[in-house]
Amino acid sequence: MRGEATVLHADLDAFYASVEQRDAPELRGRPVIVGGGVVLAASYEAKARGVRTAMGGRQAREICPDAVVVTPRMDAYSAASKEVFAIFRDITPLVEGLSIDEAFLEVGGLRRLAGTPEQIAVRLRERVRAEAGLAISVGVARTKFLAKVASAVSKPDGLMIVEPEREEEFLLPLPVERLWGVGAVTAEKLHRYGIRTVGELAELEAATAERMLGKATGAHVHALARLRDPRPVDTTRRRGSVGSQRALGKHPRSAEELDLILTQIVDRLARRLRGGDRVCRTVVLRLRFGDFTKVTRSHSLRMPTDRTAVVLTMARALLAAALPEIADRGISLLGVSLSQLDRADRVQPELPIDWGDEARLDGVLDTLSDRYGASSVSRAAQLGRDPGWSSPILPEHE
Fold this sequence. Notes:
5-stranded mixed β-sheet; DNA polymerase, domain 1; 42% helix; 3 domains; globular; Dna Ligase, domain 1; 6-stranded antiparallel β-sheet; 20% strand; Alpha-Beta Plaits; alpha+beta; disordered C terminus
């Protein structure tokens, strides 16, 4: 006998863009793009015109020339996220954060105190709208996987309940791309075998799926297609990280110098991600000021990535926010960590991404570095600079 639908997946809608529209009423109803070089977020008005997260900025402006492009405001997004997560934790202590704008909540033990899972979900959406001024979509189901799919299907600003008795009716007609772990490459393999829906995959034997996709991926996606997802909401979930840092000494550094050092660090970390077939969700900036006090500033991406341009955009935004404090206190160390790592082949992009020339450039640079050494190719901005900037970057942890 299947259990009750008590898992909520709560996902803020077009989070960065929604915060911008909330804080600037003149942007409401207009297409908004957050980030210039790479689209970090797009409002639903911009998405309707074809703009997608992680699209190149130039392509986005060609598709939607009347879009308003705004600079990312990490502090504002972080504050909004903290406000929303405080609401989550006020509703239930069992909260598993996935990123800055989404989380799982387990509400199975709250019926006497707070009502049914559906009533809790309705109240959660009302509170986020009233207290944080943001729209949020919520899926409610027996498992984390089904709850996440339900919230995605309900977007924007929706609520969907998947009762245990209609799980097959809900899931099996959906395209295989809805399964965690089925990205573009895996979907293409399945399509070649004529498998386009979850139901068609579920009809296969597990061994057949494993032969098609490899043992790990095949077993994983086949289990999900058969509605098997035993993972509980995990409030202690942690993932690994990779990081590097640079000791800077005591003499003052200009914003240009810091940007070049940051770029070197990010270039190498992003190459390490791709070399290990991994992606990250969170970018962490680590600073040690002139008085040797340490701080970290972090931001979680809406979608996991291994693209240098996306990571660098986020790291630069974090550094820009810290520059006034650096000017006052000095800086003796600069570091970057990439955390919430996952295997690249287990991540399903929620929207189509066409990296085009940028992805090819990352691949060419990785090949050159692997073949001829990390110093064989440099950015033009680093030419003629102090050779000391090219000294080895110390690994922080992994």
